[in-house]
Automatic annotation (TrEMBL):
<dbReference type="InterPro" id="IPR036866">
    <property type="entry name" value="RibonucZ/Hydroxyglut_hydro"/>
</dbReference>
<feature type="domain" description="Metallo-beta-lactamase">
    <location>
        <begin position="125"/>
        <end position="320"/>
    </location>
</feature>
<dbReference type="GO" id="GO:0005737">
    <property type="term" value="C:cytoplasm"/>
</dbReference>
<keyword id="KW-1133">Transmembrane helix</keyword>
<dbReference type="GO" id="GO:0008270">
    <property type="term" value="F:zinc ion binding"/>
</dbReference>
<protein>
    <submittedName>
        <fullName>MBL fold metallo-hydrolase</fullName>
    </submittedName>
</protein>
<dbReference type="InterPro" id="IPR024884">
    <property type="entry name" value="NAPE-PLD"/>
</dbReference>
<feature type="transmembrane region" description="Helical">
    <location>
        <begin position="7"/>
        <end position="27"/>
    </location>
</feature>
<keyword id="KW-0472">Membrane</keyword>
<dbReference type="Pfam" id="PF12706">
    <property type="entry name" value="Lactamase_B_2"/>
</dbReference>
<keyword id="KW-0812">Transmembrane</keyword>
<dbReference type="GO" id="GO:0070290">
    <property type="term" value="F:N-acylphosphatidylethanolamine-specific phospholipase D activity"/>
</dbReference>
<dbReference type="InterPro" id="IPR001279">
    <property type="entry name" value="Metallo-B-lactamas"/>
</dbReference>
Length: 371
């Protein structure tokens, strides 16, 4: 009997050892995890006023996980309304969609979650173009996208003047999407530390510009400003806070846009509104929240208040309608946001994925999530 127990224990230990070795090799050899900054780029990180004690910090002290209820762990492995039981609607577009667009009009096209293609002053700017099917380093490690198709295959997307990245989490910075897009993009604008990931993935270093908070750039007359967000970063087990995260201000000749990336609610929205607002259109995270991490993601009601702080004329909820990354029902974020928006008299855009939003014209607000 003792011999059998000893043999069983040896087998279990051996299996665990193999799993650990495979995991370490996967993390260290897979390009999906990105790379660390070196040389001049590493020096820029360390000289940032937002970098201290070997990591980046939020403006306000922020705890990623305020509490952890072990009773909720089983909920992560069940659906129970957290994903739709149907493939949500997608408006298909073709190359003609871009050929027929007037440069004098600002247009936005939602690709789901936080991915938005912005056309402004003759430029095409893709914000957080996560176009993959699963927000993780491997398809086995995450739940699939709610829609089984994109508005346009990534290979058919037009030439892009710029890509803006808010931070390096997998649902915002996707290895496969960057590899597929990199040769049709002129410029990549990213927070400090993310250049190392892009260079590893084959993006020409000359195409990449890294930003600290409040730094600005000019894209042929369009002002780009990297502004604070209340969040965190990291792609591996031990690199949390190693790269910066941000929101983006995009100001053109006619219109001013705000893209929030991921952010908990704080006074930064009001400060950004005072410095660069009001905004014709805001895109603000509304989804993947939970009372266990209230400082790094907003509740839907806070999303509406953030738009007011920014001076936004129209708000579009993003960071919902694509992936299951939290425990709430998949359509709860937009329902809660709309209820608060009615109370506070905020105009909300709720386009279908792929449906055009043209500023200074009628804003689409279909209730498409109800079958």
């Amino acid at each position: 009997m003792k011999k059998i127990l000893k043999m069983t224990l040896l087998i279990i230990v051996s299996i665990i050892g193999v799993i650990l070795i495979v995991g370490v090799l996967f993390i260290n050899l897979s390009p999906q995890f990105g790379a660390k900054s070196t040389g001049t780029n590493a020096g820029r990180l360390k000289s940032s006023p937002n970098y201290k004690d070997g990591r980046f910090h939020n403006v306000e002290e922020t705890v990623v996980m305020k509490s952890m209820s072990y009773s909720t762990i089983p909920s992560y492995f069940t659906n129970e309304g957290k994903s739709p039981d149907w493939s949500i609607p997608v408006v298909k577009i073709t190359s003609q969609y871009f050929d027929d667009h007037s440069d004098s009009l600002t247009r936005l096209t939602w690709f789901g979650h936080s991915a938005v293609l912005l056309e402004m002053d003759g430029k095409k700017i893709f914000l957080d173009p996560m176009l993959g099917s699963v927000p993780s380093p491997h398809p086995w490690l995450g739940a699939s996208r709610f829609n089984d198709t994109l508005p346009m295959p990534i290979e058919q997307l037009p030439h892009l003047d710029a890509v803006l990245i808010s931070h390096d989490h997998y649902d915002h910075l996707d290895y496969g999407s960057i590899v597929a897009l990199k040769d049709k993009v002129d410029k990549f604008y990213v927070p400090l530390g993310i250049a190392a990931h892009l260079k590893l993935w084959g993006v020409d270093e000359e195409k990449i510009t890294e930003f600290d908070w409040w730094q600005e750039a000019d894209l042929d007359g369009i002002k780009l400003v990297s502004t604070p967000a209340r969040h965190f970063s990291g792609r591996g087990l031990f690199d949390r806070f190693s790269t910066l995260w941000c929101s983006w201000v995009v100001q053109g000749k006619q219109n001013s846009i705000f893209f929030g990336g991921d952010s908990g609610y704080d006074d930064s929205f009001k400060l950004i509104g005072e410095k660069y607002g009001p905004f014709d259109f805001t895109m603000l995270e509304c989804g993947q929240y939970n009372e266990q991490w209230p400082e790094i993601h907003m509740m839907p009601e806070e999303t509406v208040q953030a738009n007011i702080d920014l001076g936004g004329k129209v708000m579009m909820p993003i960071h919902w309608g694509a992936f299951k990354l939290s425990l709430h029902p998949w359509d709860e974020p937009v329902e809660r946001a709309l209820k608060k928006a009615v109370e506070l008299k905020v105009k909300v855009a709720t386009p279908k994925i792929g449906q055009a939003i043209v500023l200074d014209s009628e804003i689409p607000a279909p209730v498409w999530w109800k079958r």
